[in-house]
């Protein structure tokens, strides 16, 4: 008589944490803004968000990964791009504020009286 045999395999997946957090950025309209963070795992996948909105790579956003370093570039920023940006590993989040200042021009008028 054969008895049923069962096997259970338990694995643990290490948590992906941040070794370098995102930092707040101030920039001017028309520039590119770069947000960068570093995780404990080189194979980590992250999601980038602006508030609740998940960001996708395209003309506005570039996402790069080099080793454990994750970078988001916001191209040609506008004042409307200001806000909280989040890098999410699934285990932890790093947040930073992007502040975009409008381009204000000052003109000097010179009058010459003779």
TrEMBL record:
<keyword id="KW-0597">Phosphoprotein</keyword>
<dbReference type="InterPro" id="IPR036179">
    <property type="entry name" value="Ig-like_dom_sf"/>
</dbReference>
<dbReference type="InterPro" id="IPR003599">
    <property type="entry name" value="Ig_sub"/>
</dbReference>
<dbReference type="GO" id="GO:0005737">
    <property type="term" value="C:cytoplasm"/>
</dbReference>
<feature type="signal peptide">
    <location>
        <begin position="1"/>
        <end position="18"/>
    </location>
</feature>
<keyword id="KW-0963">Cytoplasm</keyword>
<dbReference type="InterPro" id="IPR007110">
    <property type="entry name" value="Ig-like_dom"/>
</dbReference>
<dbReference type="Pfam" id="PF07679">
    <property type="entry name" value="I-set"/>
</dbReference>
<keyword id="KW-1015">Disulfide bond</keyword>
<keyword id="KW-0732">Signal</keyword>
<protein>
    <recommendedName>
        <fullName>Ig-like domain-containing protein</fullName>
    </recommendedName>
</protein>
<dbReference type="InterPro" id="IPR013783">
    <property type="entry name" value="Ig-like_fold"/>
</dbReference>
<dbReference type="InterPro" id="IPR052385">
    <property type="entry name" value="Obscurin/Obscurin-like_Reg"/>
</dbReference>
<feature type="domain" description="Ig-like">
    <location>
        <begin position="14"/>
        <end position="99"/>
    </location>
</feature>
<dbReference type="InterPro" id="IPR013098">
    <property type="entry name" value="Ig_I-set"/>
</dbReference>
């Amino acid at each position: 008589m054969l008895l049923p045999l069962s096997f259970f395999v338990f694995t643990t997946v290490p948590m992906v944490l941040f070794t370098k957090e995102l930092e707040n950025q101030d920039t001017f309209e028309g520039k590119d803004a770069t947000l960068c963070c570093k995780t404990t795992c080189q194979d980590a996948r992250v999601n980038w968000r602006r508030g609740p909105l998940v960001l996708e790579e395209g003309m506005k956003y570039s996402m790069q990964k080099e080793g454990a370093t994750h970078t988001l570039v916001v191209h040609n920023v506008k004042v409307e791009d200001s806000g909280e940006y989040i890098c999410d590993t699934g285990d932890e989040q790093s947040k930073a504020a992007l502040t975009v200042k409008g381009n204000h021009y000052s003109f000097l008028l010179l009058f010459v009286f003779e």
